[in-house]
Amino acid sequence: MKFLTSRQPHASLIATGVQTIVTRYAPTGYRGPLAIHAGAKVEHHGKFYMLARKARTAGAVNAEQESMIRYKDVPFGAVVAVCDLMDVVPIVAGHECSGYRAHLCESSGSWLLHSSLDAPWPDGETEHDVTDQLPYGDFTVDRFAWILDNVRPIEPVPMKGTQGLRDLPADIAEQIEVLS
Question: What domains are defined for the chain?
Answer without folding.
Answer: 2-179 (2.30.130.30)
